[in-house]
Design goal:
The protein is of the alpha/beta class. The chain has two domains: 215 residues, 3-Layer(aba) Sandwich (Rossmann fold), CATH 3.40.50.11720; 180 residues, Rossmann fold, CATH 3.40.50. It has 19 helices and 14 strands. The strands form two sheets. The chain has a seven-stranded parallel beta sheet, with helices on both faces. Helix 15 links the parallel strand 12 and strand 13.
Length: 413
């Protein structure tokens, strides 16, 4: 099976440049990897002490941030290297000051794994959530470099737990320790005979819990809201627009809305604005506008959403009306506000948990969206109770970073 895997990776690597001609995202995937080794060769003196983090994409990076921050504070003499698999993660965070260097992870061939690890010389490798690359893990083990998985999740339908999954189960044997998010993951991995497992929870709770301690003031948002009840619609897609546009257009004037769409291109933002009958302003055109006279603020920019949630009385988080995936519900939850999402969230453990606790509502139509919002808008006690559940959900699930750091500190001399 190992031979077949390496043949597949070699073929896949060979055809990627051709496929990249057909897709802008795949083109970034291919071109971004062309200079990785050259970049690493220029950057690393031999005496650097390095901790390597690998993240599949942006979500995994956010899960890794609390641990990276803690390591930088505890071990300031170490460099942090971050690798991404996907272009969306790399492009969003390639200039982050948190890491000393950020690059794509070269494809998992044996030659690439050897060369990468020889150049970086990590004394510790931290993989966030998933992506078990057999060749990298095998080389790390051969060099006695600890590999740790944090915020890991396992599902029964994964190859590890199937009759044909012997090769992948063998890969798991290269891992020094698993810090898993939930009891299901812990049980699945322990049934395979692994005892190096800790139920730590999800580091994202630590990440978002810090947000409430930060300065979340945004002057122009305060001017816009002007003491009105505010509904924040975050990371929305066209499928989400289909259920909230009607409500916005029919809403009383004493309610204001902030919409932060996932797609911020001018054409998309203007198309959204055209659908709204209320007085609406785009972020890009806010200068010279009396913001308190507007009822809808469309944030066709990035970098504000986590702070904007602090101004909200109710939040709708997008992504689950379509199939693209639910966006981060923990960011609004940390501010103790009720949350509404779409219908497709079966793969999102935290959303299912918060729904069971009655801190989150799922809707499948514009009519359901209006019914839930009307209840929350009209019933302040319900709004406050639901928000309190959301805030408590965050507070009761923090602590993963501390558990992980207690282990990692022992691995770093």
């Amino acid at each position: 099976m190992n031979i077949l895997y390496n043949i597949f990776i070699a073929i896949f690597s060979g055809v990627l440049p051709i496929i990249g001609l057909l897709s802008p995202k795949l083109k970034l995937f291919v071109n971004g990897r062309k200079t990785v080794f050259e970049t690493l060769e220029k950057y690393f003196p031999s005496q650097d002490r390095v901790i390597w983090f690998h993240c599949a994409s942006l979500g995994e990076y956010e899960q890794g941030v609390p641990v990276m921050e803690a390591l930088k504070k505890k071990h300031p003499d170490h460099k942090i290297v971050v690798t991404f698999f996907s272009p969306s993660g790399y492009e969003a965070k390639k200039n982050s000051a948190l890491a000393d260097i950020i690059v794509y992870l070269p494809m998992d061939t044996n030659a690439n794994a050897i060369r990468f690890i020889q150049l970086v010389k990590p004394e510790l490798a931290v993989f966030v959530k998933y992506e078990f690359w057999p060749n990298y893990l095998k080389i790390l083990q051969s060099k006695n470099i600890p590999a740790v998985f944090i915020s890991a999740t396992f599902r029964e339908d994964q190859a590890f737990f199937k009759w044909y999954g012997g090769f992948m189960r063998k890969t798991l044997q290269t891992i020094d320790h698993f810090f898993v998010q939930d009891k299901i993951s812990q049980t699945l991995i322990e049934k395979q005979g692994f005892t190096n497992v800790t139920l730590s929870g999800d580091t994202r709770f630590d990440r978002v819990s810090h947000q409430i301690e930060m300065d979340n003031h945004v002057g122009f948002i305060s001017d816009f809201i002007n003491e009105r009840l505010c509904i924040v619609i975050g990371s929305s897609w066209p499928e989400d627009e289909e259920i909230f546009i009607e409500y916005i257009n029919d809403a009383p004037n004493e309610i204001c809305f902030i919409v932060a769409p996932h797609e911020i291109k001018d054409s998309s933002a203007n198309a959204l604005k055209q659908k709204i009958k209320k007085k609406t302003v785009l972020y890009s055109e806010k200068e010279g506008i009396v913001l308190k006279d507007q009822q809808v603020f469309i944030m066709n920019t990035i970098g504000y959403l986590s702070r904007i949630y602090s101004y909200g009385d109710i939040a709708y988080v997008g992504g689950a009306m379509g199939t693209g995936g639910l966006h981060n519900i923990l960011e609004p939850a940390t501010f103790g506000i009720p949350i509404i999402i779409g219908k497709n969230f079966e793969k999102f453990r935290e959303a299912k948990q918060l729904q069971k606790l009655a801190g989150l509502f799922s809707v499948s139509s514009a009519n359901e969206f209006s019914q839930i919002l009307n209840k929350l808008v009209e019933d302040k006690k319900l709004r406050e109770k639901t928000g309190m559940i959301s805030g408590h959900f965050i507070n009761s699930n923090t602590g993963a970073t501390g558990m992980i750091m207690a282990y990692l500190n022992k691995k770093i001399n």
